[in-house]
Amino acid sequence: MSEDSRRLRTAAVIPAAGRGVRLGPGAPKALRALGGTPMLIHAVRAMAASRAVSLVVVVAPPDGAPEVRALLDSHTFPERTELLVVPGGDTRQQSVSLGLQALPEDVDVVLVHDAARPLVPVDTVDTVINAVRGGAPAVVPALPLADTVKEVRPDSGGGSEPVVGTPERARLRAVQTPQGFDRDTLVKAHETVTFDGEGATDDAGMVERLGAPVVVVPGHEEAFKVTRPLDLVLAEAVLARRRVTDGYA
Ligand SMILES: Nc1ccn([C@@H]2O[C@H](COP(=O)(O)OP(=O)(O)OP(=O)(O)O)[C@@H](O)[C@H]2O)c(=O)n1
Ligand SMILES: C[C@](O)(CO)[C@H](O)COP(=O)(O)O
């Protein structure tokens, strides 16, 4: 049996090491409550809801791995789901790299999913996995934009920014997670691609730099990222509706 034919497992890496500065003061964002349960627990359950996902690697705040392990141990997940916890880094990119390093050899498909997207539906997770299993090396769930987007020249000072252009909206997509990858492609991207400034804002962007194809599949409105306080209000409302209509825990 070749090495590749033994790799048949799908894992999810959940970067959860961010502070959540834009959400305001408090605990690290992934540990803040949504419907009385930490956002991270919702995100892990969202990945574990897919029958294809048998391993979830949680990337904890750098000094918080023991607390995150204890938190996971105090909640229930499907029996089929193995959970690992590793400490994260200073940037999202570093945290994802540290999560990838923890993957066992038999994993061939990797999802990378923000802890800050706790309510992604399982159908979206499965759509991404199926597209990777169907042969795409990198798959991104995304939605068309509601707003028109302007490209500006930032840092011009004085509170106003000159507009450089207006990209054609019909060609733009707002990308979400989980992003799905052939493991070797994603690892190569993390080992070889470097970004200046803010760094890569998503993993698919790193794979694009490798020159490998990246495809978009339909995302979901409820896969939005909890970034600012208003997002938390929306997340609480979605969760409350699910609890009434779907019996969601
Ligand atoms: N050093 C970091 C920074 C971010 N993340 C994770 O990357 C995801 C997306 O990042 P974002 O929403 O920007 O989270 P924060 O960095 O926590 O937010 P902020 O920029 O407002 O501080 C989150 O699940 C966050 O925990 C991470 O694992 N390690
Ligand atoms: C990966 C991501 O969620 C795709 O939209 C996004 O780029 C993360 O950005 P953040 O600034 O780290 O939240």
- Separate helix tally: 8
> Which CATH class is shown?
Alpha Beta
Structural class: alpha/beta
Number of domains: 1
Strand count, sense and closure of the main sheet? 8 strands, mixed
Low-confidence stretches: none
Radius of gyration: 18 Å
CATH superfamily: Spore Coat Polysaccharide Biosynthesis Protein SpsA, Chain A
Mean pLDDT: 94
Protein name: 2-C-methyl-D-erythritol 4-phosphate cytidylyltransferase
Catalytic activity: 2-C-methyl-D-erythritol 4-phosphate + CTP + H(+) = 4-CDP-2-C-methyl-D-erythritol + diphosphate
Pfam family, one: IspD
Family: Belongs to the IspD/TarI cytidylyltransferase family. IspD subfamily.
Structure, explained:
- The structure is a single chain.
- The protein is an alpha/beta fold.
- The protein has a single domain, classed as Spore Coat Polysaccharide Biosynthesis Protein SpsA, Chain A, CATH 3.90.550.
- Helices cover 32% and strands 22% of the residues.
- It contains 8 helices and 12 strands.
- The chain has helices at residues 3-6, 39-48, 65-73, 92-101, 122-133, 183-192, 203-210, 229-245; strands at 9-15, 33-34, 37-38, 53-60, 82-87, 107-112, 138-144, 151-152, 163-165, 173-175, 179-182, 215-218.
- The strands form 3 sheets. Strands 1, 4, 5, 6, 7, 10, 11 and 12 form an 8-stranded mixed β-sheet that branches. The protein has a two-stranded antiparallel ribbon with strand order 2-3.
- Strand 4, helix 3 and strand 5 form a beta-alpha-beta unit.
- Helix 6 (183-192) packs across helix 7 (203-210).
- The relative contact order is 0.17.
- The structure holds cytidine-5'-triphosphate and the ligand C[C@](O)(CO)[C@H](O)COP(=O)(O)O.
- The site of cytidine-5'-triphosphate has 22 residues, from helix 4.
- Cytidine-5'-triphosphate (CTP) is lined by residues 15-22, 29-30, 59, 88-92, 95, 114-116, 225, 227.
- This is 2-C-methyl-D-erythritol 4-phosphate cytidylyltransferase.
- Keywords: Isoprene biosynthesis, Nucleotidyltransferase, Transferase.
- It is an enzyme of class 2 (transferase).
